[in-house]
């Protein structure tokens, strides 16, 4: 698979033309939650059990990255919070070194897409961190993560979690616009460095 440039159509988004997600309360229970001992397949070929990782982990979830030449589900842009997975992911890529310098020990992306699908995105977007697959919905179900049903598929809603020693310390939800999520997380981390 070649890792070509990200098409401009994925990155140049007029966020004002898209319906923003509303805070439906679906993430309120997460702060203070201990992560379950679920191992997730990662695009770097490893398995990651977030509950066992020491220190501070940043994990951002997204519904579904697109692939060049593949159509997104019908009506995708009309679903609040659906569009913007590639801009969100690229923002975490672009801020990765700063996030680590600000106190994150590691960064992961998370979706319910399978690892093969995610691996294409990780290579094409030149990600410095792995994407984690919860295709079996084990973590999603155990933590009761916010989801959306699209075309018969269960997709994660967009959010970011700060996990400290296996416990959720902070939640960013809802996230809009997606391309600002990494900067928002970075600001939170830097505020805790002082």
From TrEMBL:
Example of a GO biological process term: cellular response to oxidative stress
Alphabetized Pfam families for the sequence: Redoxin
The keyword Signal appears for this protein: no
Record's GO cellular component terms: cytoplasm
SUPFAM superfamilies for this protein: Thioredoxin-like
Entry's transmembrane regions: none
The protein, known as: Redoxin family protein
Region entry Disordered, spans: 1-24
Keyword annotations of the record: Antioxidant, Disulfide bond, Oxidoreductase, Peroxidase, Redox-active center
Alphabetized PROSITE patterns for the sequence: THIOREDOXIN_2
Domain Thioredoxin: start-end pairs: 29-194
Molecular function via GO: thioredoxin peroxidase activity
Domain of life: Bacteria
């Amino acid at each position: 698979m070649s890792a070509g440039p990200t098409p401009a159509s994925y990155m140049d988004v007029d966020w004002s033309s898209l319906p923003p997600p509303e805070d439906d309360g679906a993430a309120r229970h997460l702060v203070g939650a201990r992560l379950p001992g679920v191992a997730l397949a990662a695009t770097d070929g490893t398995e990651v059990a977030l509950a066992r990782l020491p220190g501070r982990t940043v994990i951002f979830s997204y519904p579904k990255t697109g692939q060049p030449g593949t159509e997104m589900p019908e009506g995708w842009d009309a679903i609040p919070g659906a569009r913007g997975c590639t801009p969100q992911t690229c923002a975490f890529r672009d801020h990765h070194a700063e996030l680590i310098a600000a106190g994150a020990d590691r960064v992961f992306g998370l979706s319910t897409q399978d690892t093969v699908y995610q691996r294409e995105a990780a290579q094409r977007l030149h990600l410095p961190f792995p994407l984690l697959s919860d295709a079996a919905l084990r973590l999603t179900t155990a933590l009761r993560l916010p989801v959306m049903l699209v075309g018969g598929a269960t997709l994660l809603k967009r959010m970011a979690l700060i996990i400290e020693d296996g416990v959720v310390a902070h939640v960013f939800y809802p996230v809009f616009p997606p391309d600002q999520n990494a900067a928002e997380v970075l600001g939170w981390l830097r505020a805790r460095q002082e």
